[in-house]
Amino acid sequence: MQRASKSYPAAYAGQIHANLDGQAMDSWFQAERSVNAIRPGDHAWLAFSGEEERAHIIGDFVYDGLATEEKVVYVTDAPPDRLPGVRPRHGIELRSYTDTRQLRVIPREQACLSGRGRFDPDRMLRTLEREVDAAFDQGFRAVRLTTDFSWVLNEPGRSDLSQMLGCEHQFGEAVSPSTMAMAICQVDKHACPQDELVALRDTHEVLVEVNPEFDDGILRIVRTFEPHGLRVEGELDAARHAVFAEKLSLVTHERRRIHLDFSRLRFIDLGGLNLLAHHATGLPTDDGLVLDHLPADVENVIDMVGWHRLPGLARGQERPFPGAGGMAS
Amino acid sequence: MTLEHRAFMYGELQQLLDTAVPWLREGVERDEKVVVVVRETGMNAVRDVLGPDGKDVEFYPSEVFYKHPVRTLRDYQGIVQDARPHTVRALAEPVWHGQSPRETREWARYESLINVAFEHSGARALCPYDQSVLPQEIIEHARRTHPKFARGEDTLHNDSYVHPKDFGNGCDSMIQLVRPRHAEYRTIESDDLHDIRAFVGERAVGHGLDTTVARTLVTAVNEVATNAVRHGIPPMGLWIWSDDRDLICEIGDNGFWHADPLTGFLPPESALQRGFGLWTVRLLVDLVELKAGWDGTFVRLHVRR
């Protein structure tokens, strides 16, 4: 399994972000990565909030693999043209990729079920090994694996979580040293209790999220799904107002309250505050824009100006812990 | 409803009480919102003489209320807005000691701006000036910034009063911007101001400003620099230097900005109004000086450690 190049193509040189999203974090080694930055050796975790989020992530994962001559393996009972999270894209016929065996859709029974129809972790691991070997023999430079584990968690008469955790652990041990294999384990965020979700998440070194809508190294804009809105990271100044306004419009078409996660915002200029107020007062509903996790320095500016001078802006969730963010640049 | 803005010259505390207390009482009787902002030395006396009539009166020590003219104007505006539909009656005595000439100039400008900021508010303000201790310059300012005088229970017309725009022009003409040779300089090339922010942030922390003050200075510099890029004429640049406890940033361009003397002094209703940016800049830092001439437009921001 050494054929895959050690120097990864540019597509894998994405940014790695430490996880500061305030969720319970037990492991310091976890990295957040956008789906286009997933690389061989990554055993990634996706707890999706709904089909929209999944479609953004898994769709890109699958189509990017197919476009870059990597093998894609999806363990699911769905047919190739209706893979979970993979919406049709113009001009791409998924069935043609199964014909060439670049896309492998393996039903659960064949991939990971025991003779009694129960989830069998050992069988899942053997499937992984088999598919990676096959991809190697076929000459693919990498293989992308994914499956939705939600059903395992909801299996009737399911044993405790340890079986699943053990499986994930072994899965990670198989993928991590690999120069070819990368995997995304999907779970419906609402399918299992929070503590189980956290325990499962922590068996993964990588947390995958959507590709950023914009990233120029200074400002990074990422869509969020629960709550609906954008996460704005870095510095927003006049040079970036236009792109920010455009991305804000992108999430405005639906009749849903927009949350802006500012937890990683290091700077916003006064024009940016003006832009927010302008946008908020033009919204069809009176909901306005909710500013979540405001950094203390930004909140200080708004407090001095007075919230009432920024119509349509509402203070959302508090910052999860003080001090995160700190002095900019 | 027009504003009543009167100065009152006194020499002894008793004179102040004799004029101010009946006037405050009148406000209480008329169900106005009554506010007393006087120096700590006079506060207890006013409170004592008012007695039970003062129970709904708000008291603030001048030493706390008058720290920053732009913020004080904002705070008064907040009081006026919160009081609606009641009108506000304020005994308002600024602090005039321990100031640099620059600060005195800005507080005099503030007194003048009251006439515009609250022009239609129906508010009444009585501003006591202690003639026994205040320098003649301050008394002169008072004559030029108050349309009326109070003497006892009478109100006298003041012929020395000048319109705030003219007074502001006068203040601006006093501004002298001399830059020391050791000032550091950076050119401003575009509205992508990441490097300028990083540079100013570094110098601000190096000067010993706490993080919050450093960040607000960066926000203010960024706003002025953005305006220079948008409306100015190249070359644009930033100078920065320290002068004792002050850190000073000056942004200049080659344009000649004919700014209205009231620009950025009056609190805007909302961020959507013109002038919000400059007003906020004035709010964020300790002092802003603006000088436009044939050699260019220069905006100087002062922050004290």
From TrEMBL, chain B:
* NADP found in the keyword field: no
What highest taxon heads this organism's lineage?
Bacteria
Name the UniProt key words of this record, in alphabetical order.
Kinase, Serine/threonine-protein kinase, Transferase
Q: Name one GO molecular function term.
A: protein serine/threonine kinase activity
Q: Where is the MEDS domain?
A: 5-147
Annotated SUPFAM superfamilies: ATPase domain of HSP90 chaperone/DNA topoisomerase II/histidine kinase
This protein's record includes keyword Transmembrane helix: no
Ranges for domain Histidine kinase/HSP90-like ATPase: 191-301
Matching entries from InterPro entries are given as: Anti-sigma-factor_SerPK, HATPase_C_sf, HATPase_dom, MEDS_domain, RsbA-like_anti_sig
Which NCBIfam families does the record match to this protein? RsbA_anti_sig
- What is this protein called in UniProt? Sensor histidine kinase
**Organism per entry:** Actinomadura rudentiformis
